[in-house]
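Input/output pair, single chain:
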Amino acid sequence: MSLTPVLIGLGATVPPRVVDNEELSQRLGTDDHWIRTRTGITQRHWAGPKTATGDLAVTAAQRALRSAGGGRVDMLILATSTPDHPMPATAPDVAARLGLGPIAAFDISVACAGFVYALASAAGAIAAGIAERVLVIGADIWSTRLNPQDRNTAVIFGDGAGAAVLRAGEPGEPGALTGFDLGGDGALKDLALVPGGGSRQRSDPDGTGEADDYLTMRGKEIFTHAVHRMGESSAQLLKKVGWSASDVDWVAGHQANVRILHTVADLLEVDRARVLIHLDRVGNTSAASIPLALTDAAADGRLASGDRVLMTSFGGGLSWGSAALTWPPIQVSEVLV
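Output:
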């Protein structure tokens, strides 16, 4: 029997600075009502000038390790699209700062689908016998890559980090991740893109403007693809693991837009009341959004041991992924916001 990844610890963090809709409205010529009705977001947290993605990742990881009761870690996987440096990867530095020793540590960049992809990567490492305990982190600081005059992106994104500790276990035990569904379509990469900063920009003499370092996003098209792909991926995964819509206790979807989350729930015929919503207080935190939502729900008691949780995500790439989890009896103390 193949070893199965089992969730044993969870932790998350957001920067202390709160940026509410009113603050952005004054600069962008919009208002709180416009932002809330289109996104469901009322505020977001942005990192200060001396805070990097790795800093948030370390804090979230420390909390997850504490939630897991300590112990060794054999591998660290960091999902981020806003690393501390283009090179080297941020994960080895995070592992060193956590005092984990010379373990395998690497970044993956799958935008907002990163946490689910990282969980799947950890599952593969555990099943292959490469690692017995894996620390998975989703962390992003997008506030540094947003055009301050672009209301299509500036009102949406927040900064944060979430982490999970997985150990090798058996398929039927609480905390077991029972299945995954992953996909992508690179032909649509231009729908969400940071043009600058990579080798493509340096090979293109026209790609030299400062704005090239900002995130560009075609929101209406992203909305359509997110609903379709998250819904389809979730349905395929439910079929794979043998769950019906009525078996799902909670949907932990990528926290991009409340209308996307509700529409996906409707497609799956899952009650909207069973959708975890955290974006109203933190915005779209990219790879951190699902672990942030899970941490918040676990800390306030909504998630109970034995609950069946469907995680589903969508991000630039385009990329998407879903995972099924039976919730474990873990302690999460930090109520974020």
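The longest strand covers residues 4-13. Residues 177-326 form a domain with the Peroxisomal Thiolase; Chain A, domain 1 fold (CATH 3.40.47.10).
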